[in-house]
Write a structure and sequence with these properties.
Protein name: C-type cytochrome
Mean pLDDT: 78
Domain Cytochrome c: 64-155
Number of strands: 0
Keywords: Heme, Iron, Membrane, Metal-binding, Signal, Transmembrane, Transmembrane helix
GO molecular function: electron transfer activity; heme binding; metal ion binding
Largest sheet: none
Order of helices and strands: HHHHHHHHHHHHHHHHHHHHHH
Radius of gyration: 32 Å
Strand content: under 5%
Distance between the termini: 95 Å
Helix content: 40-55%
Region (Disordered): 157-180
Amino acid sequence: MNSIRLRPLSHLFFALFLTFAAVGNTSAQQVGAAPAVSKEGVTPGATAAAAPAAAAGATTGDAAAISAGDALFKGNCAQCHAVNEVVVGPALGGITKRRPMSWILPWVKNSSKVVASGDEYAVKLFNQYQKQQMPSFQLSDAEITSIVSYITSEEGKGSAQTAGGVTTDNQSKVDGKTDGGGAGATAGAGQYVDILLIVLVVVLIVLVVTLVIIANIMKDVLRGRKDLDGRDVEVLEQRFDFSKLYKAPAVRWIAGVVFVLVVLYESVQGVMAIGLSQGYQPTQPIAFSHKLHAGENQINCSYCHTSVYKSKSANIPSANICMNCHSQIKTESPEIKKIYRAIERKQPIQWVRIHNLPDLAYFNHSQHTQVGGIECQTCHGPIQNMEVVYQYSALTMGWCINCHRETPLNTKGNGYYDNLVKLHDASNNGVPFTVSSNGGTECSKCHY
């Protein structure tokens, strides 16, 4: 009788796995071609499909762009804006009729830069809303275009306001309920892809288990055969030796390289993060709300931080400034009583400092606020919406230098700059005269 040659079943399992993986991937591409957008918001830089349209200054009305714009709007704009109502900022409905995309794009990226350039519409809007500076957003042209597409699609719809700037008409979209079009169709396709992949995985598992059972049965049958030669018995009884795998020099070398790379990566990340406090939000000794004071009651920043327009530092307000109002208002509040105790003990309130530059860097508040016309929100973010203040910006050297490179100087009516601007324009082909053009990126400006 001919000798029986047994083949390892691992080849068969591997082939089946690759086959099902390929089928699943193909099905996913066919059924789920449209990308699903998270209702939690989109990270800036994540949407780039509409870049050509954005560059041409056009908005797109397709479902994917509107869906992406919906998520971006809720993640970045809804705290201050609604489509059809005034919230903190103006209603955005009809924005494309009031302003072209060539104006909207730079406004969203850096509104303070547009205001500083002297644009009449920007200055009027800035003054109309109590000089509240809109934060700059690191969004691409495509992402801004998708936001405008979403705004255009929502114009004229019911706009009963709810918390966080979300309207009752689009609340169903936030909750994942749609009318069957746009994002709803995409979500439905995504659900079908998930179901299909789950079925394929279950089928694959069943096949693998079945093949393992068949292989064991075959081995038991073959072990009872007496006509097997030594080679067949050796193949039948072979076992995979894991000790040979982890003792192999190549495996140890690869593991060592991976370990070194991971340690190196974590070390570099740790070193790069030294001194960075973005997002730092300590608990203060008194529960002071900037949202209540600067937002709802619209108290100007300089009322409490009295030296912000005339000194190097924006001072921490003294207890006496608090008492200008709170000697009459909410006198029984437990938090206000903490101010009374500080005054009685003749001790300052121990506020915890949040924004702190290293000693090697020179920064002058008055140079930026009074001379440069920079609003508090440009660096400190939407302070008027913060219950507890946190560090909004990175405040790194690169962050400051980028601002100096992008922010134009308002030289109108200042004869000191006339000759400098002429020389700059003659050699830079219309590139704006920025802070950097005036020496704003020289090392000695901040380090001396």
